[in-house]
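Bug: token stream looks shifted between consecutive jobs. Job 1:
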Amino acid sequence: MKKLLATKMILVEELVDSIKGRLLDKIVKDQGSIYKKSPRFCPECDSKDVVGVEIMGARNEVLLWECEDCYEMFLKYEAEETELDLQEAKSYWTNKNDWGCIPRSKQN
């Protein structure tokens, strides 16, 4: 059975304390390793709980991977390309209260 990829969608400001300067340095420790597909295990703690992270305003797809256990983040694209996407998305804003609420019984 094929494992479904879990993803979450967030704003850049939810990842960093300050949106000034190089953002990638604040959120990804290992910028030399790139995972085009979700890692089967977290390279940091060996957890199987790795999810895709979509950044609103960056791309219409997963930009980073995150371990749900140790919270380390990993690159899907080259560091410079990811940094450009993060810089572009840092001014993106939304009011989550405008989204409405889907009852748990109707969620996937």
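Job 2, same session, no restart:
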Amino acid sequence: MNSEHDEVRRWLETVFNKSGIPDYQLTPEGLEALNMIRKMSQEAEFREAQIREHKLREVREMEAETKRIKKFVQRTGNYKNGFEIRNGVYSVLCYCT
């Protein structure tokens, strides 16, 4: 129980910035509840970090693709007036600056 309490206390210190931990009465049930909340919180933080990294990777890929397309358009020589991309379903008018 002591090591679980230490883990919960360290987690509470990160949540409440050490000095702001509210007083709480430690019972076996309370410790179990806090430990469960701690684990759920840490799992949510881990998942959020994974999602954030995935989205940042997608942004970098999109930026690289944008640069690639811009270079392609500039090589065609018609980029000042824009150009139209048609695929039968969509028509997109692109302007490169």
